[in-house]
Design a protein that fits this description.
The protein has 616 residues and is an alpha/beta fold. It folds into three domains: 249 residues, Aminohydrolase, N-terminal nucleophile (Ntn) domain (Glutamine Phosphoribosylpyrophosphate, subunit 1, domain 1); 194 residues, Rossmann fold (3-Layer(aba) Sandwich); 151 residues, Glucose-6-phosphate isomerase like protein, domain 1 (Rossmann fold, 3-Layer(aba) Sandwich). Strands 3-2-4-1-10-9-11-14 form an eight-stranded antiparallel β-sheet, with helices on one face. Helix 15 packs across helix 18. The longest helix is centred in the C-terminal third of the chain and has 22 residues. The chain is globular. The structure holds 2-deoxy-2-amino glucitol-6-phosphate. 2-deoxy-2-amino glucitol-6-phosphate binds next to helix 9.
């Protein structure tokens, strides 16, 4: 949800800000803008649409200066117009501000400021904050770095809601303020220069030394240094400097046309990274030190709750089957957005997992906080190191899948399932799994990356089938047991990047209503590997075929029982039922990708979507 980047140093700010925006574009791409200080003047440029439009504007109307801020917007308050694009100025046009988040009490503040004579030029909550800071400055005499920071602090204390902001003042060249509450913000430490960004991907080409802002922190930043203060008046702890564990290349496209395709192809590697150092043959189990729980504490767990949103929720659904099968622990899944407001009765020995690639999803974070508030131990399964969920949870497991830029989640999904499998193995070995069963599970886990490579080799065939069906008006996806969530995920992938309506269902639900939709031009994608429910899925396929429906099946290599029945078949290598979803989802990721490309959709920047949803 919106990307922000700020720069203060010796170099021209605009190229650095633009490059950062390009890397952050996956967070929002309705409009973009920047403001750079030049000789006591704020030069602002804004454009509706993609970052390219801002590049074009700057080629005609360049800006110069070495202090600046910029923003790529995913609209929350106010339509997608140039007036609503960031940065916003205060009434006296002395300061510029970019903001990621939502200010919940902006209407009351706007009314108050309007009464005080301020005319607003946009419909945004952000302009209200800019004007509030401007008024605070006016009340307090000549501007100094400290008085500026104090004015921002006083204004932020008046707002309710979430923010990650960067602010500059025309009279303070070489000075930048950053602050956060609820929305991510990171400070990049360079040599004679500093950066602010909502995501490290924006600045990793310049520095890998970063400080993740904690909630309610505000910083004064210059080219030579920075100082962090607390917005709540508490004396802050020591500043922790982290080293980012990937380089600029990891966030480049390389030879791929889209990040989504790159990330689909990265799955053998990302899975290897997820399992690296975590498989113990000696104990026939998984080693997950980050859980921060003793064996006795893990053994005492009676119930598990898995929560997340979108694709992460689908991974949770797969995890439910895996945990119940391997560890025999009653497990339930909740959409994080529901869990945060639900009064779910839970026994005291409940363990909660918040699953989130970004680690910044507002609903998932709120669910984590609510569970912690109720006294449950709440752990995170995140990809972004240092993200808010990772920091606020009692412990957890990093996915280590590498940066995921494509808005459609792919490699994070398979890594999430793998992490849940490792947790199930660890907890299962404390309960019902023997040493030899543990070893067998380990060897199946180790075999996964090569099997994924084999699935990826079928890409050309999957692409040809995708082209054939790309103009279908609607797709149905069916799966049963472990593969029911894969039906949901296959449908979500297709919807979000191709805008073709699609829905996922448990196979057996066909006859309870969905069968009414079956006809020749509505393809049914059925995930039917040779497993304990294969015969049941076969019945579903027969029922569809009997009504002239078209069937695209995903099944196990070597299975010939769908030949002559299904219209098209995607094969995946054999694997145990509990790991099969990691394989069966891959043809569906490729299928969705190739359909979207065939019909000319912008795969990496789908309509209306943003990569991480940091607003409610
Ligand atoms: C997946 O393709 C979506 N873009 C979306 O559903 C995503 O999985 C969801 O917003 C959760 O994001 P998170 O994993 O970063 O919390």
């Amino acid at each position: 949800m919106c990307g922000i980047i700020g720069y203060v140093g010796k170099n021209e700010a605009a190229p650095i800000l633009l490059e950062g925006l390009r890397r952050l574009e996956y967070r929002g791409y309705d409009s973009a803008g920047l403001a750079v200080l030049d000789g006591g003047i704020i030069q602002r440029r804004r454009r509706v649409g993609r970052i390219e439009n801002l590049y074009e504007l700057l080629s005609v109307e360049p800006v110069h200066g070495s202090t600046g801020i910029s923003h790529t917007r995913w609209a929350t308050h106010g339509a997608v117009t140039e007036e609503n694009a960031h940065p916003h100025l205060d009434a006296s046009e002395s300061l510029a501000l970019v903001h990621n988040g939502v200010l919940e009490n902006y209407r009351e503040l706007r009314t108050e400021l309007s009464r005080a004579g301020i005319n607003f030029r946009s419909q945004t909550d952000t302009e209200v904050l800019a004007c509030l800071i401007g008024l605070e400055i006016q009340k307090n005499g000549p501007i100094t770095p400290e008085s500026f920071r104090l004015a921002v602090e006083r204004s932020l204390r008046r707002v309710k809601g979430t923010f990650g902001i960067a602010v500059i003042h025309c009279k303070l060249p070489g000075f930048l303020i950053g602050a956060r509450r609820g929305s991510p913000l990171v400070l990049g430490i360079g040599s004679g220069e500093h950066f602010l960004a909502s995501d490290v991907t924006a600045i990793v080409g310049h520095t890998r030394e970063v400080v993740y802002f904690k909630d309610n922190e505000i910083a004064e930043i210059t080219a030579e240094g920075f100082e962090i203060f607390s917005l709540t008046g508490s004396t802050g702890g020591s500043v922790e400097i982290h080293s980012v564990d990937f380089d600029a290349e990891a966030v480049e496209l390389g030879p791929y046309p889209h990040f989504m395709l790159k990330e689909i192809y990265e799955q053998p590697t990302s899975l290897r990274e997820t399992m690296r150092g975590r498989l113990s043959h000696e104990e026939a189990s998984a080693k997950l030190g980050g859980l921060n729980m003793s064996n006795a504490e893990l053994r005492a767990i009676e119930r598990i709750v898995l929560c997340g949103c979108g694709t992460a929720f689908h991974a949770a659904l797969v995890g439910e089957y895996i945990l119940e099968t391997l560890a025999q622990i009653p497990t339930e899944c909740e959409y994080a957005s529901e869990l945060r407001y639900r009064n779910l009765p839970l026994p005291k020995d409940t363990l909660v997992f918040a699953i989130s690639q970004s680690g910044e999803t507002a609903d998932t974070l709120a669910a984590l906080r609510e569970c912690k508030r109720k006294g449950h131990r709440a752990l995170g399964i995140c990809n972004n190191v240092g993200s808010t969920i990772a920091r606020e949870s009692d412990g957890g497991v990093y996915m280590h899948a590498g940066p995921e830029i494509g808005v459609a989640a792919t490699k994070s999904f398979t890594s999430q399932i793998l992490v849940l499998s490792l947790i199930a193995l660890l907890m299962g070995r404390m309960r019902n799994l023997s040493h030899s069963q543990g070893l067998e599970i380990l060897s199946e886990i180790e075999a996964l990356p090569e099997k994924v490579e084999l699935v990826l080799e079928n890409s050309d065939y999957i692409s040809a089938v995708a082209k054939k069906f790309a103009r279908a008006p609607y797709f149905l996806f069916f799966g049963r047991q472990f593969n029911y969530p894969i039906a949901l995920e296959g449908a979500l992938k297709l919807k979000e990047i191709s805008y073709i309506p699609a829905s996922g269902h448990p196979s057996a639900e066909l006859k309870h209503g969905i069968i009414a939709l079956i006809k020749e031009n509505i393809p049914s994608v059925i995930i039917a590997p040779e497993d304990s429910v294969f015969e049941k899925n076969l019945n579903t396929i027969e029922e569809i075929k009997a009504r002239n429906g078209t069937v695209i099946a995903v099944t196990t290599e070597g299975c010939d029982r769908l030949n002559g029945i299904a219209d098209e078949i995607f094969f995946v290598p054999p694997a145990p039922e509990y790991l099969m979803p990691i394989l069966t989802v891959i043809p569906l990721q490729l299928f969705a990708y190739h359909i979207a490309v065939e019909i000319g959709c912008d795969v990496d920047k789908p309509r209306n979507l943003a990569k991480s949803v940091t607003v409610e």
